[in-house]
């Protein structure tokens, strides 16, 4: 087994688990009971850390004892949960996924030989800062509890925990003299808070209030309590320097730097770390945070996300001296409040903005920070490999200048539903890092999707990869995955995987969207790799329904995959409609428009049966946080905005394929376009989109009582539409 460098100081900094006790295993046992629905599980749990020359190994081991009970031993509670999930999956116990679970406790008598798995990584990282906007801005505790269960079963022990930042920083600013109006007017509405925190925007789509802060504090207590009970190492928010412009009122001596984002469409204000006030606020924030939530040993501070940096030119001593001072001041703002804490920083810009972040620039920023007090999140290795086609960051930055780092990928931008991603890379790409002479202090493997509840096979595969130091046989793994999910893997499902690997899961697209998900008249071709193999793959999947249609997870996937199939056919229809208008054949165009409507409404109908892919579910989460109808309407509007117009010029970024969104937003927008083409009168799409976003409610859905046959008939209906 290959070895990786472990950093004991970072392990100690992350609320590490002590020797075995009933308390240590209680949360893990309760999780297993909760996720299987079985209150009497024949399992024995034991925590027993294994030491190696270079640190503490993360592992699990299980066997059947003489009394017939399953005995699981692991390095911490998350490892126990991962061990249980491995045992269940290997012995017919099913799967635990966002779109449904069939997880059960298999009979230990059917278990195989004793099994031990030692992860090549001491930690397993999860979440993106943007996930808190694109997936869970309005989650309640019930949904968060399921997500933490999912994390533990999949072996993730180092998640971001960013809720309630605004509530705590508001306390700090209030004590400094800012008013409630100045503070809460600075914050964006809940779904846009990640970009507020990173300094990209301010005050976008509304303000916050005391009820929201109270809500988030209560929620964050539950989140952190559960994460810590499971021995997880949550990464909490820190102060990155961004403040309301009103800070000048109480500190006129301080220079505020105006940050610009998205071509100058958005802005914020930043206190330079060189200013004593930066350290004062940063330290006060952590003290206030720990007064409320207890000690947190890792704090995320990002001051330069996708923005120009106000430094002298490359190659100058002034540039590197200033950067070194910046890094030191950020670290000191954390250290003064908690000397044990680690400064965590996202590394998205290291690949995305290399024209700014060359080796010398990053080296200077990190130079004054002790190695064991820094952690870099190398978020997007898949982008390095398959989109930017650049050197991977750990090689370009020579082992990240000696700082600990996390190997991570971004499987989804904006939570887009359409599939993309090279499964072979997600299975085995981490092995390149483990064997690299430049790997330096690689201490974690993980993933940082901007949005989740999509492309579930990718996340299941990535979680498996993080616990494997050996190459994964992808075809065998996909067969095993299918058995766990559907109960069997007939030839039609094998053919389905062949087709997907030759199309959407054998290629990497930065932003997979169909053309009908863009404002009409702007894009003629989408970016989903829906080639002929993709169409045949979905047809093969549906043909397996004669034997699998009694399985609920199969039906959920059939709804989603058929919608993706129909989405690709809808794009082909739009191209043909355009051709007919160009030829002057309006009669033929009108006939195809009727077909387009039928296909789009068919997609919507199928997805109304899906547990996750529904706009109504999304807006229900939002409305549940409101204290009165006005606030509920405002939160619903914000929830609609983040998945549609976002805020110009980020229109149509999130690209969800959801019921409700299709019938009420995408389809009507295209029908207005068709009417405009026929009448010759221009249509004001921006005004229509804004009205839709701010109008509460959805139209009544149509839902099928026979999902499988409806899916099959819709596929048959589109047979005349060929790529």
Q: In terms of topology, how is this protein built?
A:
Layout: H1 8-13, H2 22-36, E1 43-47, E2 50-52, E3 55-57, E4 59-64, E5 70-74, H3 77-90, E6 96-97, E7 100-101, E8 115-118, E9 123-126, H4 131-134, H5 141-153, E10 158-159, H6 165-176, H7 180-184, H8 193-197, H9 210-229, E11 236-237, H10 247-250, E12 256-261, E13 266-271, H11 276-293, E14 298-300, H12 317-335, E15 342-346, H13 348-352, H14 359-366, E16 374-378, H15 381-388, H16 393-396, E17 405-409, H17 423-428, H18 430-435, E18 442-447, H19 456-465, H20 474-486, H21 491-501, H22 532-543, H23 545-548, H24 552-583, H25 586-607, H26 615-623, H27 629-642, H28 661-679, H29 685-694, H30 707-717
Parallel strand pairs: 1-5, 9-10, 9-18, 11-14, 14-15, 15-16, 16-17, 17-18
Antiparallel strand pairs: 2-3, 4-5, 4-8, 6-7, 12-13
Helix pairs in contact: 2-3, 5-9, 6-11, 11-12, 12-14, 21-22, 22-24, 24-25, 24-30, 25-28, 26-27
């Amino acid at each position: 087994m290959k070895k990786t460098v472990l950093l004991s100081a970072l392990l100690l900094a992350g609320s590490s688990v002590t020797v075995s006790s009933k308390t240590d295993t209680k949360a893990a046992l309760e999780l297993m009971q909760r996720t299987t629905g079985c209150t009497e599980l024949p399992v024995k749990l034991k925590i027993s850390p294994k030491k190696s020359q270079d640190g503490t190994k993360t592992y699990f081991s299980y066997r059947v004892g003489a009394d017939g009970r399953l005995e699981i031993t692991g390095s911490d509670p998350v490892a126990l949960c991962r061990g249980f999930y491995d045992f269940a999956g290997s012995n017919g116990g099913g799967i635990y996924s966002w779109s449904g679970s069939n997880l059960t406790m298999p009979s230990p008598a059917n278990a195989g030989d004793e099994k031990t798995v030692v992860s090549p990584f001491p930690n397993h990282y999860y979440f993106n800062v943007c996930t808190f906007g694109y997936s869970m801005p309005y989650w309640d505790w019930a949904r968060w509890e399921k997500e933490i269960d999912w994390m533990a079963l999949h072996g993730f022990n180092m998640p971001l925990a960013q809720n309630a930042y605004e509530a705590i920083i508001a306390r700090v600013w209030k004590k400094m003299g800012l008013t409630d109006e100045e503070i809460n007017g600075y914050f964006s509405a809940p779904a846009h808070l990640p970009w507020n925190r990173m300094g990209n925007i301010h005050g976008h789509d509304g303000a916050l209030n005391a009820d929201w802060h109270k809500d988030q504090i209560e929620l964050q207590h539950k989140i952190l309590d559960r994460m810590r009970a499971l021995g997880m190492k949550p990464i909490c928010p820190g102060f990155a320097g961004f403040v309301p412009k009103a800070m000048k009122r109480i500190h006129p001596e301080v220079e505020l730097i105006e940050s610009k984002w998205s071509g100058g469409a958005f802005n914020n204000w930043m206190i330079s770390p060189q200013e004593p006030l930066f350290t004062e606020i940063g330290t006060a924030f952590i003290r206030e945070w720990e007064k409320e939530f207890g000690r947190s040993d890792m704090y995320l501070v990002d001051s330069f996300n996708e923005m120009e940096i106000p430094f002298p030119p490359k190659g100058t001593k002034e540039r590197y001296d200033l950067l070194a001072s910046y890094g030191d001041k950020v670290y000191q703002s954390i250290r003064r409040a908690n000397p044990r804490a680690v400064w965590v920083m996202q590394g998205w810009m290291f690949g995305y903005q290399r024209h700014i972040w060359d080796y010398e620039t990053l080296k200077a920023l990190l130079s004054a920070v002790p190695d064991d007090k820094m952690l870099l999140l190398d978020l997007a290795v898949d982008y390095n490999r398959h989109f930017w086609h650049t050197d991977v960051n750990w090689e370009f930055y020579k082992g990240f200048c000696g700082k600990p780092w996390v190997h991570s990928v971004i499987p989804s931008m904006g939570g887009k539903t359409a599939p993309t991603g090279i499964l072979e890379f997600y299975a085995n790409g981490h092995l390149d890092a483990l064997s690299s002479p430049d790997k330096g202090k690689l201490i974690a493997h993980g993933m940082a999707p901007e949005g989740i509840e999509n492309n579930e096979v990718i996340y299941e595969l990535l979680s498996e990869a993080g616990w494997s130091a050996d190459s994964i046989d992808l075809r065998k793994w996909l067969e095993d995955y299918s058995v766990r999910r559907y109960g069997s893997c007939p030839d039609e499902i094998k053919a389905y995987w062949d087709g997907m690997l030759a199309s959407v899961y054998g290629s990497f697209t930065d932003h997979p969207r169909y053309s009908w998900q863009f404002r009409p008249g702007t894009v003629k071709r989408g970016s989903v790799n829906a080639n002929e193999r993709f169409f045949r793959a979905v047809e093969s999947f549906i043909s397996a329904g004669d034997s699998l249609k009694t399985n609920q997870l199969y039906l959920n996937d059939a709804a989603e995959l058929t919608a993706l199939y129909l989405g690709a056919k809808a794009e082909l229809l739009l191209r043909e409609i355009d051709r007919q208008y160009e030829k002057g054949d309006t009669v033929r165009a009108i006939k195809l428009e009727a077909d387009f409507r039928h296909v789009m409404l068919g997609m919507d109908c199928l997805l109304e049966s899906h547990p996750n892919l529904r706009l109504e579910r999304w807006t229900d989460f939002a409305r549940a946080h409101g204290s009165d109808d006005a606030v509920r309407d405002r939160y619903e509007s914000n929830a609609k905005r983040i998945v549609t117009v976002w805020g110009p010029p980020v229109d149509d970024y999130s690209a969800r394929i959801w019921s409700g969104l299709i019938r009420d937003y995408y389809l009507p927008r295209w029908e207005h376009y068709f009417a405009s083409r026929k009448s010759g009168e221009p249509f004001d799409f921006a005004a229509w989109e804004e009205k839709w976003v701010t109008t509460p409610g959805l139209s009544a859905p149509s839902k099928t009582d026979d999902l499988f046959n409806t899916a099959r008939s819709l596929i048959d209906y589109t047979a005349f539409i060929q790529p």
